[in-house]
Give the backbone structure.
Amino acid sequence: MLKDGETFAIFDRSGDVQSLGFSQHGIFHEGTRFLSQMELYTGQGKPLLLSSLVKRDNSTLNVDLTNQDISQNGKVALPRNSYHLFRSKFLCNGVCYEQIRVKNYRSEKTKVILELRFDADFTDIFEVRGMKRARRGERLPSVVDEDSVTLGYRGLDAIERRTRILFSPRPCRLSDQVAAFELTLDGNQEETIFITLACIVDDQHPPQDVPFGVAYSRSQEVKKELESRLCEIHSSNEQFNEWVNTATADLLMVLTQTPDGLFPYAGIPWFSTIFGRDGIITALQCLWVLPEMARGVLRFLAARQARDVEPRRDAEPGKILHELRRGEMANLEEIPFGRYYGTIDASPLFVMLAGAYFESTGDLETIEEIWEAIELALEWIDTYGDRDGDGFVEYGRQSETGLVQQAWKDSDDSVFHADGRLAIGPIATCEVQGYVYAARMAASKMAEVRGLHPLAAKLHQQAKDLQEAFERTFWIEEIGTYALALDGGKQPCKVRTSNPGHCLFAGIVSEERARRVAESLLSADVYSGWGIRTVSAKERRYNPISYHNGSVWPHDTALIAQGFARYGLKEESLKVLTGLMDASLFMEMHRLPELFCGFRRRPGAGPILYPVACSPQAWSAGAVFMLLQACLGLSINQPTGRIVFDHPRLPSFIDWIRLKGLRIGTASVDLLLRREQDDVGIIIERREGDVEMVVIK
């Protein structure tokens, strides 16, 4: 997989886009597949694969191939391994660049015949996922020139989408389906074919023809500039370093520059777009590593906050965006997700992120810029969010085609009672009440800074009132944790799930009950050995292969680890960090996917993969940074100029860890942290600017 901006691509290991059967392969741009086939043939068949890899920084796919035996008149005219093919591909600004370098390793002159077979079906991403449409737009006549082909489609949304493929040198034969090359190479001679594939939407200017090398240099400059802003993490454990390096590269890949700043697109392939909840949580996970991400997320979501009641979009004034799509089906509202607001938690999470961002950066200018959006989100919580006035925030969809469940576990069967009955809405999940509590506490602090003292006092009291009501209503003594949710009849769903762990993260849980929640989450029926299951194995609807009823989500486990640390439960945080670290060892490139199955850990075997999980996924990539932050007790408070380590701990598999370029405002430090029995020693290797280090033992 490759991604850049609004474009992502999925190839097979040979670098091809295959068109056979149900295939996710292709080059996708703004929710549409602009290339559905691009297969390389040599002589009498496909070349043989030698190796294939995506560079560590996710920038380039490199593939090494060689020829198979090529026969003529019943005899082998050209034996296998006579020449080498090197394919290199990358994306930049809506264009896929490819070079095919051919080198003859025979001593005599050799004729090499290459064919590229291509097509573009211009299907919507939801069609690729399996949705059927009654009608589609029309395929436009192809335009074939001497060195280029343009394939076109006019959608039912009246937008023309075109795929322009430029070849250099000119093919010896070119049609709207095939480009053929005949190369005659002397011994040890090599030649290179360049292919530039541009995705063009009619309201955009076609990209300029930029040479392969120039485009590559430009794309690398952008990546290096982003890398320079990150806090660099390196430890004594190379396997942990691989996990961190992959997560960093994945974050840089999904980060997309918008008019309002950086925004992490949720995941490839199905969610390579804006998701409010995912973007906010990823920004929270990475706030200490890359604070600019949080600023971009806040500004983008504030600019697109709902202002009107629109039932078909589940929109209400002050509500924060759930999802933004740009494909044909979204434009035609065949799906509701063009600009969709069906999320109950993005609004309080937005306010939480604003508070955390201000505390970490002291950027009052951005808070002033989005203050109206913060107030509108708080007003939405009090009015539309609490639809029956009972003090809790609940959801119930307005759109007939929208999401039934609108908390983070948004599959239809994710909220149920102990006997397995699905809960009937409106539904108030426990973690959303935690988010609302944290949002009000954060907004109270920001209001104080802005001199809005009556508002600050009101928000603080609202938070405390909610906390008391939450403890009184949601705690279920018989299961030793909080109810998953209240249904529309205010009956609690007495089900053990991971959701109360988010309540720890938000800080709404009382001190005396925090340890009991942690014990529940780490019991054998909830903790799989790799991570925390979304639903206990003892519950009626538990299914380790389900999306939300027993699987393990890395971001979920990471948020819970931060919740453990908030209540001083460092051993518990270390345990889940170790479990996910072990899981990463079995994953390709140490990349944690969106989720994996919740089967118990077995000796000598790795986690069982969920079949259609997105990978990479933004908040799965961000999990390692929040897990590390939890164990170190790391917090940054720019208004006081302090970096705090609260009872820092390191797992047994890390002897030391170095944080380079840890920023607080305009200041930064390089730190070396060493594990010392049940403690961590911290050495300041470089300090630039005014910053105070505080270590709480």
Remarks:
- The CA atoms of residues 507 and 531 lie 21 Å apart.
- The two ends are 44 Å apart (CA to CA).
- DSSP finds 16 helices and 34 strands in the chain.
- The chain has three domains: 2-210, 229-632, 643-696.
